[in-house]
Design a protein that fits this description.
Elements lengths: L1 E5 L14 H12 L4 E9 L4 H6 L21 E9 L6 H15 L3 E6 L17 H13 L7 E6 L3 H4 L3 H8 L12 E6 L10 H18 L8 E6 L9 H17 L4 E4 L27 H15 L1
Parallel strand pairs: 1-2, 1-8, 2-3, 3-4, 4-5, 5-6, 6-7, 7-8
Helix pairs in contact: 3-4, 7-8, 8-9
């Protein structure tokens, strides 16, 4: 199983300060140990919703990522770029134009390309809440697939099982109605956003993780995807504050990784390297392996050791 991490300093609209590239680089090098390591980044298309663009600080998404360009293609690093669809009204033409502009800017750096973010999850600041998201996914992904190099893997991500979210049957009905050649044939992987104890207490994270991956496999089979399609844990995490503690974060992270590996996930990307806001009392503030000042928590060493352990298996 290959590992990676999100290196920015934002969780939704929560962000206490800008990322510090000078602190990020050495920490990522230490975590990866010189092995291939995936770096997750996000760019957002908000259409003409300037208020949302400002809320999630998306106004300069196409100007730069967290780190300098060359950093993403050296030291064994591989860029996983998420293109997020958040317009106030459906606008497929605008979205396809955004995909083109994003690939013009970052296509030479990308190793994995994710088209839309959790299109089955209809909550604010997530793509599933956006008008026209099904078309954005099912037409945007093949459009992107035709634009990238042959060695770039193109996929999409979904949120956790329906019973955790209030139901996503309509999403799956739309996907299942599409012929294999129209959509599934263009998909190289599917990612899962996995936070079983991220926002409320949960005792058995291992069992919840196994269930989430099993559920996703069943749903994908119904929607014409092959049984051997690679599954990525596109995002996963547990806070060190709110209803958790630093020790609880370690326990949860261990269970997330071990259950994902046992269920056959081929990639695991952690959210996140550093806290969005270490003083925030909500879970969103403390998902990092490090504080907002880049001081490692106990979970930092846990992740570093798990990267090395699973790399040898």
């Amino acid at each position: 199983m290959k590992f990676g991490i999100y290196v920015g300093s934002r969780a939704g609209a929560t962000c206490a300060g800008p990322p510090d590239p000078l602190r990020i680089g050495p920490l990522v090098d230490d975590l990866s140990g010189g092995k291939p390591f995936v770096i997750r980044e996000y760019v957002h298309w908000c259409g003409d919703n300037t208020a949302l663009e400002q809320e999630i600080d998306a106004s300069n998404d196409l100007d730069h990522l967290t780190m300098p360009d060359d950093w993403y293609v050296t030291g064994g690093r591989e860029l996983d770029l998420v293109l997020s669809y958040l317009p106030p009204v459906a606008d497929l033409d605008g979205w396809l134009d955004f995909i083109d502009r994003a690939l013009d800017r970052y296509g030479h750096l990308v190793r994995y390309l994710q088209v839309t973010l959790e299109a089955n999850f209809p909550i604010p600041l997530i793509d599933g809440s956006s008008p026209g998201v099904i078309a954005a996914l099912t037409q945007g992904l093949p459009h992107a697939r035709a634009r990238v190099r042959d060695d770039v893997k193109v996929g999409f991500s979904l949120a956790e099982p329906a019973e955790w979210l209030g139901g996503d049957d309509d999403f799956w009905k739309n996907l299942t109605s599409m012929p294999y050649a129209a959509f599934a044939a263009h998909v190289d992987y599917v990612g899962l956003g996995l936070y079983p104890d991220g926002f409320s207490p949960l005792d058995d994270v291992h069992a919840a993780t196994s269930h989430a991956l099993d559920h996703l496999r069943r749903r994908l089979a119904e929607a014409h995807f092959p049984a051997d399609l690679p599954l990525h844990i596109a995002e996963a995490g547990s806070p060190s504050g709110a209803h958790r503690t630093p020790a609880g974060q370690v326990s949860s992270l261990t269970a997330l990784i071990d259950a994902s590996a046992a269920a056959g996930a081929t990639q695991f990307e952690l959210f996140a390297l550093s806290d969005a806001d270490s003083d925030d009392e909500s879970p969103l503030g403390t998902f990092g392996l490090c504080t907002g000042d880049y001081l490692p928590k106990p979970a930092y060493e846990t992740y570093r050791s798990r990267v090395n352990l699973h790399d040898r298996v």
